[in-house]
């Protein structure tokens, strides 16, 4: 798959090396799967060697990109552009091979010419300089782009470092959002000087509001060092002057994994960087701290953790806790504790055999907010015998209690429910199990809403109410995800209950609307599923059961919270309209309808909204600019935040981000199916496109 020369010449060289009389050449060539990925009689190379997730906000939907390295050494980038659909964006192996071919396989112009491809050592060199070992994403950084009128604008970018077999590192720079090959900004190659490299990690350190960065490289022979990464036009970006060796002994303990954790030093009163590396059965740690004297480096090893080599290591970047595991099913939790000089680790053993029985562990990972530990396991030995077949399973171990998760959500600086989904999952299961919201959580949330009034806490309250509503519903008799094999296709005109009169149509629309609103409140996650069938039916015709009254009470609270969030977002939209429009300018946003909708409720008294609406109406100069139905050209009144209905009965769903009617067959939906949004059009100004990039106003989920 690598481009090492002209195809005809490569084929001739392969035949020459395979039939060579020198066994050191022929055997080395035939047994190397890099040279022979097809392998002939050997099993095919299917599957993945390694994968790496980018930070949030890198693809077109504001989610993560996935860099995948296959067993046949092909490095590709994928994105989840549509729900449950992965799209291949670019093949970096192919792009890098083309760059090397154009440069005659030289890293610099002053490099002396190499031997011909017919030389086996040159054949090996060209393959090793393209064979990826590991790849890792950096954090999102800001670059400056010069426009045609010589103005500079800030553009987000992300870096992908790829470590190759010969020790070289290719640093790719991508412009965000990443769309494909056209989003590649640059590619720089760094010579690490590391023999037999095994692992790679980004070193990112912040000191006095200045961000420093570098690359940590580990070797299969033992050494670990940080390399400087020089990049131009990156705003606020700094790097080291020269490489820093963290461990130089060639002790034959291979570096299996490296993690870099930013921490705050309580004694030195400054930020610091903790680098941990798994080397055999030991954990190597290095504390990096910048002072007036320069860069201080403290390092040591933690021993006595495992009797077998560490196969996987992960770290919780919230509190610096490190988790390691060996293949015998033992997981160690290492908690860093600072001392006057450096730090020490307290560690405790987590025996998975007590939870899952006899298992072998192959890898671990901690969730973004530290709520869960995911463990890949297979069956262990039974009566001293290994299992005949291996069944790989992903097991989850909770690391936080419900109270800890709730407290972290209340004090979160992120203020985004989607980015803390592991914490909300713990809260969700607690409410589903107990069928009530704990009193302490209700009181703490009400205090937060009264003190600051942030919409994040209103969204958190809506999340709790929806889960409470879901917990009180009767479980469905059938499994919801199982497809029905019955033929449910019927002609609309012949279906029962569908009349031809206007009264029947209005009655059906009102029933459907009430059903939809009940589903929105109850399910909270999927507005396609109706919940009427799952509600407990009243056995007494003279009055409602207490459970049904409780459900109606929760539904009323849900609608009140949704209306508050809607009004707050309407104020934001009107603010954008006021800032970006001239007098009597017609925008595609139904400004007058949103203003009338906000002021229609006499109980809603918001001075900020009244002042803003007054300024907007003065700027509109008595113009209304109503929306019109694309089918019959009738006016679409703004009477509902979810849909628009013209006088002829045509129904259009409204975009929850701009409140425009979505008069097209294609629109987007939030990840949890809370709301729908329209696609941006080329005619939209930049401020409307920015509004359409926002997350769901109810659940913080991205929109697809």
Automatic annotation (TrEMBL):
Q: Which domain of life is it from?
A: Eukaryota
* InterPro entries xrefs: DUF5921, GTF3C4, TFIIIC_delta_N, TFIIIC_Znf, WD40_repeat_dom_sf
This entry's Gene Ontology molecular function terms read:
histone acetyltransferase activity
Ranges for domain Transcription factor IIIC 90kDa subunit N-terminal: 8-400
Q: Where are the residues of the annotated region Disordered?
A: 491-547
Locate the Transcription factor IIIC putative zinc-finger domain: which residues?
A: 621-671
SUPFAM superfamilies per the UniProt record, alphabetical: WD40 repeat-like
Q: Name one GO biological process term.
A: transcription initiation at RNA polymerase III promoter
Q: Name one GO cellular component term.
A: transcription factor TFIIIC complex
Domain DUF5921 spans what residues? 401-478
List the PANTHER family.
GENERAL TRANSCRIPTION FACTOR 3C POLYPEPTIDE 4, GENERAL TRANSCRIPTION FACTOR 3C POLYPEPTIDE 4 FAMILY
The protein's name in its UniProt record: TF3C4 factor
Organism whose genome encodes this protein: Casuarius casuarius (Southern cassowary)
Q: Which gene encodes it?
A: Gtf3c4
């Amino acid at each position: 798959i690598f481009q090492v020369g002209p195809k005809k010449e490569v084929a001739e060289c392969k035949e020459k090396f395979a039939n060579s009389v020198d066994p050191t050449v022929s055997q080395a060539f035939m047994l190397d799967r890099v040279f022979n990925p097809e392998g002939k009689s050997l099993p095919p190379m299917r599957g993945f060697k390694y994968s790496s997730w980018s930070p949030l906000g890198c693809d077109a939907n504001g989610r993560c990109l996935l860099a995948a390295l296959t067993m046949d050494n092909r490095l590709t980038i994928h994105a989840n552009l549509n729900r449950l659909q992965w799209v291949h964006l670019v093949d970096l192996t192919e792009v890098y091979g083309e760059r090397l071919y154009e440069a005659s396989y030289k890293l610099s112009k002053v490099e002396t010419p190499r031997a011909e491809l017919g030389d086996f050592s040159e054949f090996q060199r060209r393959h090793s300089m393209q064979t990826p070992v590991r790849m890792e994403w950096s954090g999102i950084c800001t670059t400056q782009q010069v426009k045609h009128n010589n103005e500079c604008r800030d553009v987000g970018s992300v870096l992908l470092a790829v470590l190759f077999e010969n020790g070289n590192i290719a640093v790719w720079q991508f412009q965000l959002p990443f769309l494909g090959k056209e989003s590649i900004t640059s590619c720089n190659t760094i010579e690490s000087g590391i023999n037999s490299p095994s692992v790679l990690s980004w070193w990112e350190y912040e000191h006095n509001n200045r961000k420093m960065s570098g690359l940590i490289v580990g070797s299969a022979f033992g050494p670990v060092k940080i390399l400087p990464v020089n990049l131009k036009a990156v705003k606020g970006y700094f790097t080291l002057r020269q490489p820093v060796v963290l461990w130089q002994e060639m002790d034959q303990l291979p570096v299996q994994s490296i993690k870099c954790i930013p921490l705050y030093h309580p004694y030195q009163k400054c930020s610091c960087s903790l680098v941990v590396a798994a080397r055999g059965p030991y954990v190597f740690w290095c504390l990096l701290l910048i002072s007036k004297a320069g860069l201080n480096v403290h390092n040591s090893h933690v021993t006595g953790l495992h009797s077998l080599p560490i196969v996987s290591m992960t770290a919780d970047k919230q509190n610096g806790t490190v988790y390691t595991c060996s293949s015998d099913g033992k997981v160690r939790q290492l908690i860093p504790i600072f001392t006057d000089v450096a730090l020490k680790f307290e560690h405790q053993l987590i025996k998975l055999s007590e939870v899952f029985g006899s298992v072998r562990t192959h890898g671990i990972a901690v969730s973004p907010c530290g709520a869960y530990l995911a463990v890949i396991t297979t069956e262990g030995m039974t009566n001293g015998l290994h299992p005949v077949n291996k069944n790989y399973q992903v097991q989850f171990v909770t690391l936080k209690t419900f109270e800890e998760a709730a407290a972290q959500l209340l004090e979160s600086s992120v203020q985004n429910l989607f980015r803390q989904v592991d914490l909300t999952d713990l809260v969700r299961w607690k409410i589903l199990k107990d069928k009530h919201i704990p009193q302490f959580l209700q009181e703490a949330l009400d205090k937060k809403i009264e003190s600051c009034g942030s919409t994040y806490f209103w969204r958190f309250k809506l999340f709790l109410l929806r889960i409470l509503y879901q917990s009180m519903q009767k479980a469905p008799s059938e499994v919801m995800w199982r497809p029905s094999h019955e033929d449910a296709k019927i002609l609309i005109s012949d279906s029962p209950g569908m009349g031809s009169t206007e009264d029947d149509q209005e009655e059906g629309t009102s029933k459907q609307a009430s059903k939809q609103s009940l589903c929105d409140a109850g399910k909270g996650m999927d507005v396609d599923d109706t919940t009427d069938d799952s509600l407990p039916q009243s056995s007494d015709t003279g009055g409602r059961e207490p459970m049904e009254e409780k459900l109606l009470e929760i539904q009323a609270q849900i609608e009140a919270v949704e209306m508050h969030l809607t009004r707050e977002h309407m104020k934001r939209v009107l603010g954008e309209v006021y800032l970006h429009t001239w007098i009597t300018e017609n925008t595609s946003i139904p400004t007058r309808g949103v203003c009338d909708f906000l002021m229609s409720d006499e109980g809603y008294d918001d001075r900020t909204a009244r002042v803003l609406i007054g300024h907007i109406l003065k700027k509109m100069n008595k113009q209304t600019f109503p929306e019109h139905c694309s089918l019959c050209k009738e006016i679409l009144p703004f009477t509902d935040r979810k849909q628009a209905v013209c006088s002829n009965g045509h129904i259009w769903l409204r975009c929850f981000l701009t409140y425009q009617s979505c008069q097209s067959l294609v629109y987007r939906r939030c990840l949890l199916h809370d709301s729908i949004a329209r696609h941006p059009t080329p005619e939209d100004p930049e401020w409307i496109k920015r509004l359409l990039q926002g997350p769901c106003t109810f659940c913080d989920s991205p929109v697809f």
